[in-house]
Amino acid sequence: MNRIFRGGAVYRRRIEVMLLAGVCGSFANGVQAFTFTTPNPDIEMDLDTTVRANYGLRLQGIDPAIGNNPSYDEGDNTFRRYQTILARLDVTSEFDFKYKGTTGFRFSVAGWYDAAYSGKDKSGPGLASVANYPGNNYTSYIKKYYIGPSAEVRDAFGFTTVNAGPVPIDIKVGRLAQIWGQSLIGSVGGVNSVAVSQAPQNLIAATQSPGASLKELSLPTGQVAMSAQLTDRMQLSGYYTFEWAHDRYPEGGTYFGGSDSIDYGPPISAYAGPNFAIHNVKGPQGKIGDIGVETKYRFEKFSSTVELTYRRFSYKTPWFAQFNANNFTTEDIYANKVQLLGLGVNSTIAGTAVGAEVSYRRNTPLASAGSGTPGTLEGARGDTLHALINTTTYLGKSFLWNEAPLAMEIAAAHLIKVTSGAQNFNSPGYSAACTKAADAVALGCSTKNFYTFGVSFTPHWNQVFPGVDLDLPMFVQWNIHGNTPTVDGGNQGSNIYQVGLKFTIYNKHIVNLTYTGYTNWKKTATNVNGAPYSDKGWIGITYQTTL
């Protein structure tokens, strides 16, 4: 049970989902596809099937501030210390057909099953009567995306290259995902980059399937995408979508869920009184018709590429659980007609790869309290400024390692102004829930500025055993200051750290052992700023291979 019903409004805490970037990045190996032999040399057919098995064990006990809190109790009590939180099998298969290297199609499917989840969650002490899942029974949505066995089609598109005079134009039509921009770490720069909401993100898989590639986490949607090489230095790209899909957030009542009432899994949002449930209902979806245009120009003299991006799109992250007073329900509402203008650059300086972006968003959705504008139910909107900078360098062979890639990224978000729904903005001076300015940040209220930093360091050793390479991946994300003003981002004090061992065996089998821990800023005995993960430290083992 997540909400406290007060004075005709439903108050909730904005959740933060921290993408497990350290683990995801540790599987960035080359893919070994199976190539079919055909009698026609102009035809190429490849089949790539990846099998990944994950096992996870909770190492921390339940913190009463989370486990006894009606906002988070079901997600925290379902798995106790030393219980299995993951026993998941993922299979993805991708088929590519090419004719003369320029025309063809791609079709991919993904399937999964997790034996760790039963059909029920568990409430905290004395809270079963206000469970977000009646009788603590999981819904079909949870059974589909968490338990399985389930499967879905991912990529399904055709492609070709045509020539407009001397200019080659690559065209793709169908269901695909593409990510523009310079961000390295999804939970740091990704939500502050020009690629924000460019493709819906599968954040369920990010938490439930450690080792999933960024390609697996970006969900395809129907679109037309084109790229023209205008000169040897200048490229022009664009796309138009004819399908929309929302981000898949970790669901309430699951181990990595935020608030118990979020999002499409729990049928009950809140209780206004004894036996008086406020139900979650499916609200209007975002509009189709996203457009994006990007031009790149290469400055050879400076070993740099400059990018200019414009996008007009519907957001994939909602204003969560907006209260509809007309029928006493809550529903997710998505912002349409958001505009973005961005400038990016990537370069190499003294052997270090450097990427940077600055972008302006107009009419973007801001973090809001749970009662929207009458009629539309929209939360607050505003204009924001975002920036990121990252570096990637390879430390060469030394007595400590054979090589060691080091990647760092820092990102910032700045609120320029609130343009509509100011009374809904979850910030001091706007929302009644944020009147205590001294405690505002700790209580989850948005700030004008937000800064976050992430670093990944992975020492590597060749042939520690015959046929076995070893990596020691380490990752830290630190939300330095403030709570993001937008609906997606982070919270001060809500941090993540990871350390692991990765074994690559004969360049085909990968075994990864990882510990993941979290922190939260707690102002009171029942308050948690950000995603309620600080008692959810866990150890996981992943096996992955390509067939």
UniProtKB/TrEMBL annotation:
InterPro entries: DUF1302. Pfam families: DUF1302 (PF06980). The lineage of its organism: Bacteria, Pseudomonadati, Pseudomonadota, Betaproteobacteria, Burkholderiales. This is DUF1302 family protein.
